[in-house]
Design goal:
The chain is α/β, with parallel strands linked by helices and about 210 residues long. The protein has 7 helices and 6 strands; from the N terminus they run E-H-H-E-H-E-H-H-H-E-H-E-E. Helix content is about 35%, strand content about 15%.
Length: about 210
């Protein structure tokens, strides 16, 4: 049975990660620690055979992808479908600022994350739809290959939950650390287990 190995990687730490700000589809540069994390995950994955590297078009993901791809003489392929979930008007704000400025919306969203839309933002199901679209195209094109996909914490939690049959409202239970690695094998045609998990959020390269 044809199989494709996909290594999902979250980007390195950013300055906004340090400050606890919603990033969404706005950009914040990697911090000094984030750059170190990106180099470490790149070095760790240099021991693997990697056939292709795909990345979100947001700079924090692109920079992380470059640190991985250079060890394999590859250039990352940019795909906007791998972007973080859009948090709309909350982007750039800390959680404390959001609670102060959007108190009712904050409460409504915590009651129902799946159906409460932040103005100019996305719903979780919409994020899953675009990442599944990417994976459908990618697994068809990269059969029998090992590929790296660099994306973002929220987006990765949602797509991993979807692939593993975990309700999206429980996606926050899937921790995704900066440069955490999750490796899955996709077996086309398998009805019982199309997505097999080899590891989730491994950070051994940061030890």
């Amino acid at each position: 049975m044809n199989a494709t190995t996909i290594i999902f990687v979250r980007h390195g730490e950013t300055l906004w990660n340090q400050e606890g700000r919603y990033q969404g589809q706005m950009d914040s540069p990697l911090s000094k620690l984030g750059l170190d994390q990106a180099e470490r995950v790149g070095e760790w994955l240099s021991k693997r055979r990697i056939d292709a590297v795909y990345t979100s078009d947001l700079k924090r993901a692109e920079r992380t992808a470059e640190c991985i791809a250079k060890h394999h003489k590859l250039k990352p392929t940019i795909d906007p479908r791998l972007r973080e979930m859009a948090f709309g008007v909350w982007e750039g704000l800390t959680r404390q600022e959001v609670r102060a400025q959007y108190a009712q919306l904050w409460a409504e969203r915590h009651q129902d994350r799946l159906q409460t839309r932040i103005p100019q933002g996305e719903l979780p199901a919409e994020v899953v739809e675009r990442l599944r679209s990417f994976l459908s195209d990618c697994t068809a094109r990269e059969e029998k290959q090992t590929i790296v996909v660099v994306s973002h914490g929220g987006a990765l939690r949602l797509i991993l939950a979807s692939l593993l049959g975990i309700p999206l409202e429980n996606s926050s239970c899937l921790s995704q650390s900066n440069t955490g690695v999750s490796e899955l094998v996709f077996r086309k045609g398998s009805k019982s287990c199309p997505w097999e998990v080899l590891c989730l959020n491994s950070t051994s390269h940061l030890a």
